Amino acid sequence: MVFYRKRIHLVLFLFVLCVCQLAAQTSTSAMKEVEGIVFDARTKQPLDNVILQIPELRMYQITDTDGSFQFELPAYTTTTIYASLLGYQTREVHLDSIRSNLSIGVSLSQLSLKLDEVTVTASRGQDLSTSSLINNEAIQYLQATDLSDLMQLLPGAVTKNPSLNDVSLLNIRGTNKIDVTNALGTAVYVDGMQLSNNANMQRLSQQSGLYMGNANSGLDVRSISPENIESVEVIRGVPSVRYANMTSGAVLVKTKAGQMPYLVNVKVTPNVKTISAGKGWKLGSNAGYLNISGDAGLSYMDMRTKDDAFKKLGL
Q1: Beta bridge partners of 115
Q2: Same domain, residue pair 68 and 153
Q3: What CA–CA distance (Å, rounded) separates 68 from 49?
Q4: The domain boundary residue, chosen from 77, 108, 139
Q5: Which end of the chain has fewer surrounding CB within 10 Å, N or C?
Q6: How would DSSP label each residue in 211-231?
Q7: Sign of the CA dihedral 195, 196, 197, 199?
Q8: Nearest to 109 by CA among 37, 44, 36
């Protein structure tokens, strides 16, 4: 009886061993190898450090120095291998129902960042002057206190602190207000109307004076509110005969016109406080438009001395 039990145990052991070997062989045969080489599409040279990914299986490989890679995938798998390398276009390799071991080649094309040949030529202009246009967006961005602050947007201009207590002059080339080379000042036109007077030598403007000529300087522009300006064209050098004579350039101011909503602007700095408001109405089909704007300002030379202040009110 004992002999038969030992034989039964031996048979069961051999049966289990055969089943395990068969399962191992089945598992091994269910995996298929996918190997290959990644190379440059133009030079045909192998590429190393190429990243190959199979996202749905969470598998990735990096090519060796000879551009080779290898995956082990379940049989009858349908998937896509993504190959990517810096400076090359990403390549997708689709594998459909893998039945046996595969050997593939993956070519990558370089990303072309080259531009076609560009030829740049320059020609000398006929005018003796150059011009710059300052639009409304630049004016609003700068938050200017008066017209002279807009000159800071020009090349070579001098930046200054906002203030209304001193005479405000247009210095296109960064010159000081007392300059013998700028004796006639800068011509100022608002909507085609000339405001400058060739720096009238018969009177000097005081700190509180407005629209007065200043000897060897030009026009005081503190009363021209930037909030009502649509655009400013600055002509550097000698302007054409259309804009007077041998002045140091010309500033052509175009104010806002046409129908527009109510606009209110408030600017506050330690020394300067200004407020402005404007509105544009359409009067009728043939009557045109009506624009009204006004501004007020208060500026202190020294915050400790409130008596020494500049006040303005314009319409």
Answers
A1: none
A2: no
A3: 10
A4: 108
A5: N
A6: S-EETTTEE--TTS-GGGEEE
A7: positive
A8: 44
- Average of pLDDT values for 109-116? 78
Q: How many domains does the chain contain in total?
A: 2
Residue % of the chain over a pLDDT of 90: 15
- What was the pLDDT predicted at 179? 54
User: Per-residue confidence at 242, pLDDT binned at 50, 70, 90?
Assistant: confident
Q: What region, left, alpha or beta, does residue 149 occupy, with left being phi > 0 and alpha being psi -120 to 50 degrees?
A: alpha
Claim to verify: residue 257 and residue 296 sit in the same structural domain: yes
Judged by phi (left if over 0) then psi (alpha if -120 to 50, else beta), residue 251 lies in beta
* Of 4-18, 104-118, 188-202, 249-263, minimum mean pLDDT range: 4-18
Q: Please tell me whether the overall predicted TM-score, pTM, comes out greater than 0.90 for this model.
A: no
* The pLDDT of residue 7: 61
Assess if residue 249 is contained within a domain: yes
pLDDT in tens, 50-91: 999 999 888 989 999 999 999 998 888 889 999 999 889 999
C-alpha 208/C-alpha 164 separation (Å) is 9
Shared domain for 58 and 148, answered yes or no, is no
Determine contact, residues 245/232, Cβ cutoff 8 Å. Answer: no
In a domain, 70, yes or no: yes
Domain of residue 51 covers 30-108
Q: Which of 193, 192, 182 is nearest to 151 (CA)?
A: 182
Do 184 and 90 lie in a common domain?
no
Asked whether residue 103 falls in the same domain as residue 185, the answer is no
Contacts of 260 (CB under 8 A, 6+ apart): 278, 279, 280, 291
Contact assessment for residue 151 and residue 297, using Cβ atoms and an 8 Å cutoff? no
124 in a domain, yes or no?
no
Looking up residue 234, the CATH number of its domain turns out to be 2.170.130.10
* Cβ-contact 187, 206 below 8 angstroms: no
Residue type, 120: V
**Do residues 233 and 300 both lie within one domain?**
yes
